[in-house]
């Protein structure tokens, strides 16, 4: 089909650690092509990148991310009581405050939704109003990594726990829906050697398989117009020092997936 320029887009940004920097490249390509993103739905890193875009600070976020080295990423880690999470996350978000200001979601120029998880009740929690900082902080609270957030007697963690690709929260149904799935199938090693699973790799591969299945189910139930799949082994969770490369990956994936089918 032929798409008209300035076509309005609902952009769904999944969770997945540093792989989520590819979201920046996807947004850059869409804007260059003249698409109008007037809705963003995100969880975890998707909520963060989407929040930067919604507050007109995406370029500042990209520029900062590109400067990060391995050592600087480590310095951003503020260790906490291991009972509640390895990291507090405050140092990261305080740094991000220097990149974009906190505003109320309802005052944004576009529709913004961040998704977190109420762990005790096993329910999705949707933020469509109030502090965007608070919404992002809850949405990125990876269990065992960042400390969770208590909100109105609920203990909130990363939205990707229940829904790593929150397509079900798109509200602008007439928009072109573009989903960025950070749990794409891995790039296979071409070696003929059978895979060797250590205890750690077995645990991680099982976790990734579970996430891929959750994302696949969401794609089946709420089929978007375009799905940009980022291989889950494109980057490890903390490889933010590769941000420049990952932005380019997102840009090229968007161009390949959308332009080739337009």
Overview of this protein structure:
The chain is an alpha/beta fold. It is 35% helix and 19% strand. It contains 8 helices and 8 strands; from the N terminus they run βαβααααββαβββαβα. The protein has helices spanning 22-32, 45-54, 58-67, 70-75, 90-97, 132-139, 199-221, 243-259, and strands spanning 8-13, 36-43, 111-118, 123-127, 149-151, 154-158, 176-184, 226-231. The N and C termini lie close together (6 Å). It comes from Sphingobacterium chuzhouense. Pfam families: Patatin. InterPro entries: Acyl_Trfase/lysoPLipase, NTE, PNPLA_dom. Keywords: Hydrolase, Lipid degradation, Lipid metabolism.
Provide keyphrases for this structure.
alpha/beta, globular, eight-stranded mixed β-sheet, 262 residues
